[in-house]
Amino acid sequence: MPELPEVETIRRQLEPLLTGSTIAAVDSHGSDKFSPALDAAGATITAIRRRGKYLLFDLDDERELVAHLGMTGSFSVIDVTPKTAPSCADHGPHTRAVWALADGRHLVFNDTRRFGRLRVVDTGDYSDIPTLHHMGPEPLDDEFDGASLHAAVKASSRPIKTQLLSQRPVSGVGNIYADEALFLAGIDPRARRVGRQRCDALALTIKSVLKAGIDNGGTTLRDYVNAEGEEGQNQHELVAYGRGGEPCVTCAEPLQTVVLDARTTTFCRNCQRR
DNA sequence: CCAGCAGCCTGAAAGC
DNA sequence: TGCTTTCAGGCTGCTG
Fold it and tell me: What is the CATH number of the domain that holds A107?
């Protein structure tokens, strides 16, 4: 499940491959989630950015192609010789969009479970993409710190993990990195009141787990692969997520698993406080 | 406006 | 062995 480190890894790989490339033709899956990919035809990619878990392809006509990878989305760039018209069917059963570049290469979006989404919007106009529209600060920017986190979460009495997953206090944190950051900060994911001091700690652990995720090329549990088709290595560093029943690395008590917002949540009831 | 929740999806794994 | 059920979960859009 791609979160910020996975999307950033893909962004870094695609940027040098695609900057300056013109999209000559497009094919897409018929679903409304993917057919907006067609709108990018004729445009040239001028930059590739990331906001939270969203990948943003800047186009030269004051628009941008917005991509969310959902649970199983992945991008790849494929050499196609001789030049052929783009066809999803040619690339596999789970290909949801193909952008044929003017030089003959194909940018391919695969998404087995179709939780992903593609859109072309006017630059910066995210009014039809609610989560992106209301996205909190980038976690690795200086403007995100304990003070901004505390300011964002103090008004709500929803569980702290629920708030993190909303993308509003901070962007890019999903189920894996939320469990990791809360564990390292010693905060129970169900805590409904997190004061300034604990927010200071949590902001730091969010930054550290995301940085580590990027450094390790992302976390591969099931489906994630980068734009080169390679798995990440960060799954070997996880201390909480997916380790329910295993001993806590700090106190050796078995880690607890609960369901919060329909998501598996793993924590140590001994080390993490409400 | 916000909180809560169903629905979207498929393949791997577990259960019978 | 083979069929059925469960599980993974980010985001959208609906309801109260």
Answer: 3.20.190.10
